[in-house]
Specification:
By secondary structure, the protein is mainly alpha-helical. It has 7 helices and no strands. The longest helix has 24 residues.
């Protein structure tokens, strides 16, 4: 090394030491980890010229500006695809489990039949009876009423074998 490049390297080493001291003031363990990491990297680069070249290439150090290493720009965050807007659901018009328990299956079917698709979906969302997101594929009110009735009946009788 020439005298000026040796001096420049000493300045860089002092800057690194200062940075590690700042880290040590905040987090001594992180400072020890970084010191060990830099020591291992430096030892391996001194021992293996191929590793030193690979390290230089990975960090994009150019010889044109010896006093400042050109560090690549951080990668741009992955572009997120726009997700479907979540529909803010209203509270259900009634509790289908209460209707089934107190009035029976026929009354539940009749009450469900009077509702719109959105009102049915509100009940489904509020009661959390669509764990597999099956109701989103149902487009007709009659089909959604039948599906809701079946799910409510199945969930209401769940565990009845043990009673």
């Amino acid at each position: 090394m020439t005298n000026s490049s040796e001096t420049l390297q000493r300045v860089r080493n002092d800057e690194l030491g200062g940075a590690l001291l700042k880290v040590a003031a905040v987090d001594p363990v992180a400072s020890q980890v970084l010191s060990s990491l830099f020591r291992v990297l430096a030892d391996e680069a001194a021992r293996t010229p191929r590793f030193a070249k690979a390290l230089s290439a990975a960090l994009v150090v150019t010889s044109e500006t010896p006093d400042s290493a050109a560090v690549p720009a951080p990668p741009k965050p992955a572009r997120r695809l726009p997700s479907k807007a979540k529909v803010a659901r209203q509270p259900g018009v009634f509790d289908p489990f209460d209707v089934l328990r107190h009035s029976g299956e026929q009354a539940l079917t009749e009450k469900l039949s009077t509702l719109t698709i959105d009102q049915l979906r509100d009940i489904i969302a509020e009661q959390e009876i669509d764990t597999h997101k099956e109701s989103g594929r149902k487009r007709k009110a009659e089909v959604l009423v039948a599906w809701t009735f079946d799910r409510v009946k199945a969930l209401a009788s769940k565990g009845s074998a043990f009673r």
